[in-house]
Amino acid sequence: MAVSGPVEPGPPAAAAAPSPAAARDPAPEHLFRPFSAEDEEQQPTEIESLCMNCYCNGTTRLLLTKIPFFREIIVSSFSCEHCGWSNTEIQSAGRIQDQGVRYTLTVRAQEDMNREVVKTDSATTRIPELDFEIPAFSQKGALTTVEGLISRAVSGLEQDQPARRANEEAIAERIDEFIVKLKELKQVASPFTLIIDDPSGNSFVENPHAPQKDHALVITHYNRTLQQEEMLGLQAEAAPEEKPEEEDLRNQVLQFNTNCPECSAPAQTNMKLVQIPHFKEVIIMATNCENCGHRTNEVKSGGAVEPLGTKITFHITDPLDLTRDVLKSETCSVEIPELEFELGMAILGGKFTTLEGLLKDIQELVTKNPFTLGDSSNPGQMEKLQEFSRKLDQILQGDMKAHFIMNDPAGNSYLQNLYAPEDDPQMKVEHYKRTFDQNEELGLNDMKTEGYETGLAPQR
Questions:
Q1: In a 3-state reduction of DSSP, which class is residue 237?
Q2: What single DSSP character describes residue 15?
Q3: What's the pLDDT at 239?
């Protein structure tokens, strides 16, 4: 179970200048003093700020302090005398640490509940015994105790309980039962584990025995993952010089001049590299002629010919199946057994569309063929075309189930698997070894990829 704390407005947005007495900055070496009630010089800075609850002016107090055996922090507190709203939070005054930190505390006695805890925004809090987790960035940073962390979680769960009881009574009862378990933790009837995992390395759990070792507390430092670096807004380590150029190419739409295939007027073709999940890179090319309005798009495989051919058999049972993405390469043939239809390779070219879009292209190709239309057309052939078009409409409307088969000897075609990376129960993917004729059609039999420089002398 995960929990988020109460929704709190962010830090005060509009701040006026502090009073002259509060504006006197101490010397840099005394900016962060150890927190002590006897230090009369350590006074919070007061700033008039906008209340985000009633939009009147309230007061923000900032205190720069230092936690023993830890580091400097900034404690901020806001209060509004008009509406009574208040808010407190902490921020680390230092930089993000080189490594993340994980505190594992075994709470055995009531004294452990009083340990001071610094929990930053990026920290995740877990109690494995209850399968309970407070995700990162779901609560503001806080300077509190172990008991305070649990009380804050209870408050977060109780906040929306009245609405849940009105709309989702069963869920509300389960949350009530879980709240009782959280409150029982405060009594420490049995030991439990508290884990605070902070990729920024700026969270802290007090060691009351410092500088001696705390046997109830295990501190682990670790290297952050790439996802954690991105979550903290840190730039990943610079890659070799060639890689940024490759990434830039993938994120750019390249344009080059060409001629329209219909009217031969100057036109522009757009080209972009696209990475298809669980497949490979493809190149999508689109041409739009401003002179005659002709539009065309084409897909090329971004990789080499695969070692094995691919045959994809998909059972269409629902209209939603037609929304799946399809990549049909130039070397792919299409078959629909229920319609006794087969589309040879190279027809329609390469396409990246949906299954519905591909079926409509097939329907347009067949029904608008100029050799089957006009006064000289065969009446029997016209009836077959009309029957074909009618059945294809039934498939598009979801009234007829059918099998859609894609056979690509080059292995560069793709049909979206909604269950990826698991197997799709409606889809069967077979990989097979190409025949000699298929290799001949792809031009692979005469292709020499190894030792082709041997025996080649410059000819003049």
A1: coil
A2: B
A3: 46
